[in-house]
C-alpha cells in the first residue's frame, strides 16, 4: 500500500464540527500600528510539534522582515473555541489580531461582527489567483472574503482491491455503478457490507445531492430556504439512501452509522467500500484493510464524472478589533502562503488550497491524487448562515436519511426535513 503521512484527530474535528454564533458585537478600533506585538491564535493539536515547527519558521521569517514586531502565538483547544471567540469578541483587549478557525464557523463569527473583511487583500495579493475558487468560496459570506483558506479536506471513495480483484470488479465510474457494485459485493460476500454508508454520515450524502443537480438550500430575497425537497435533491437523497438496504448495508446496522463509524467499518474489514477523507488514511492504514485498498474520486451522476465533495478546512482571519490590521494581513500572507502551505502539508498532511501547490504535492505523493482530483473538479459548501449550526445540531438531514432507510417514502421525508430547515433559517 502506498505510504501516507500522519493526519491528526484535530483535523477531523475541525473539518466536521461547527458551533453556534456568539451573540455579541464588536467595533473596529480604527488604529493600525505597524510595530509592537502581533497576537495570533492557532488551534492546538494532539501532537503539536510538527505544526509548531512550521509556524515557528514562519514567525522567524516574518520577524526578520519586521524588526519592530514580535509575534506571540497562543494555541487554543478546538473544543473550547466557541467560548474563546465569544470572549474575544466581547473583550477586544483579550482578542488576537490573527486567528485560525473552521470554515463552518465563519458565518457565525461574521454575524457576530467579529471578523474583518479581507476582500481587498485577496484582490491585491498576486498569489491569491492560484487559490482554488471553490475552496475560496468557503471563506465568503455575502460575497465578501473574511479569511484565507489555510488548508482543506475532501472525501473520496475507498475500496478493497483484493475483493474487487476476487470478484473481477472495476472501481465504479458513476453513482449508478456504485450502487450496483455494492449490491454485487454484498451478494457474493455476505460477510461484508457492499459499502459502509451511514445514515448519520451527512458529508457522504451531500455529494449525491449535488451530483444529481440538487442543493441543500437556496438564497433569495435576502433569506435562505431549504431546497432538499426539490426534485433533483430528492434524486440524490434517493440514490444515497438506496445504499442503506439489506442487499448493501442493512439499515438495522447502518442507519445509525456516523462518518467515523463508516470509515472504521471499512478499516476493520467489514466493508468493501466507504467514503472517507484524506484525513482518514492513517486509520485505514492501521486497520485490517491496511495494505489491501486504494482510493478513487467519488464518481458523479455521469460516467467518468466526479461528484462535488464538501470542502472542509480551516481559515486564517483578522479580528475587527485588531489595532495591527495591516501587519495581521501581512502575517497571514506568510503563514497561509504557498511556501508554508507546502511545509504544513509535509508536516501535518494538510491539503494545500493553492492549485499549483496541490499539483506539486500530488506529483511527489501519488496517494494524494484522488483527493487533489476531487478538489480540482470543484467542491461545494454548506449555506453560509449561522442557522446551519442549528440545522446540524438538530441532525435534520441524518434524521431524514434514517426515516427513509427504515421505510418512509422519500417525498414526505424530504418535505419534513425542508420544513424543519426553514424553521431554523427563519429570515436569515
TrEMBL record:
GO BP terms: maltodextrin transmembrane transport; maltose transport
GO cellular component: ATP-binding cassette (ABC) transporter complex, substrate-binding subunit-containing
Protein name: N,N'-diacetylchitobiose transport system substrate-binding protein
PROSITE patterns: PROKAR_LIPOPROTEIN
Coiled-coil features, chain-numbered ranges: none
Stretch list, region Disordered: 408-428
Source organism: Actinopolyspora righensis
A GO molecular-function annotation: maltose binding
Pfam families referenced in this protein's UniProt entry, alphabetically: SBP_bac_8
Source species, domain of life: Bacteria
Protein family (similarity comment): Belongs to the bacterial solute-binding protein 1 family.
Keywords: Signal, Transport
InterPro entries: SBP (IPR006059)
